[in-house]
Amino acid sequence: MTNTHKSNVDLNEVAKFEALASRWWDKENEFKPLHDINPLRVNYINDRAPLAGKKVIDIGCGGGILSESLAQFGADVKGIDMGEAPLNVARLHLKESGLKIDYERITAEEIAERETEQYDVVTCLEMLEHVPDPSSVIKACMSLVKPGGHVFFSTINRNPKAYLFAIIGAEYILNMLPKGTHDYAKFIQPAELNNYARNAGLETKHLTGMTYNPITKIYKLNDKDVSVNYLMHTQKPQI
């Protein structure tokens, strides 16, 4: 791995998820929110880019929650992450699920050099807010996807409401996430993400929010509310 690629890895962020790796598939622990939103995310992806028979790479796959769902929809999936402990958990869970997924410890930038335009669909969910330079990852996603292919991002908006909900609420009041999971300064506004995508050569096709009701404990997609968590569908132009 080159120094450039290493420089876009925040070792403190990797360490956070390494420490939690053993609980990745515990649906009643720190990763419960990821399990709860996973059906929304994978259905959104499948609705906009049908997954059956497609070659997909999941950037920042962690313990494999999304990767396994993508495979269940019939995709040929590769998952990459820089945390060895989460990847080991992901590989172990395959023995339970019986699915076939190729996991590798590598950066998006490095694999983009090796596997240019090899994928029909690229997913990069809940990951951009954990790296020093999100634009570098987005450029790598653009390189990985075939012409006409689809790239999906999700992250957290940066505004007072997002700070209140994603950090104060989720980490300190509701204890849905470990304290220190998120750094408000790394949150990304939709306009910023759109600019990153456009500068990389991707076309934004759709934007939707993921809302959470703490009373009903239900997550929903809402095109009219991208104030906290949101998903963006982009596409690489055909040649």
Automatic annotation (TrEMBL):
GO terms for biological process: methylation. It catalyses: a 3-(all-trans-polyprenyl)benzene-1,2-diol + S-adenosyl-L-methionine = a 2-methoxy-6-(all-trans-polyprenyl)phenol + S-adenosyl-L-homocysteine + H(+); a 3-demethylubiquinol + S-adenosyl-L-methionine = a ubiquinol + S-adenosyl-L-homocysteine + H(+). Keywords: Methyltransferase, S-adenosyl-L-methionine, Transferase, Ubiquinone biosynthesis. S-adenosyl-L-methionine binds at R41, G60, D81, L125. Pathway: Cofactor biosynthesis; ubiquinone biosynthesis. Its EC number is 2.1.1.222, 2.1.1.64. The keyword Ubl conjugation does not apply. GO terms for molecular function: 2-polyprenyl-6-hydroxyphenol methylase activity; 3-demethylubiquinol 3-O-methyltransferase activity; polyprenyldihydroxybenzoate methyltransferase activity. It comes from the Bacteria. InterPro entries: SAM-dependent_MTases_sf, UbiG_MeTrfase. NCBIfam families: UbiG. O-methyltransferase that catalyzes the 2 O-methylation steps in the ubiquinone biosynthetic pathway. Belongs to the methyltransferase superfamily. UbiG/COQ3 family. This is Ubiquinone biosynthesis O-methyltransferase. The lineage of its organism: Bacteria, Pseudomonadati, Pseudomonadota, Gammaproteobacteria, Oceanospirillales. The gene is ubiG.
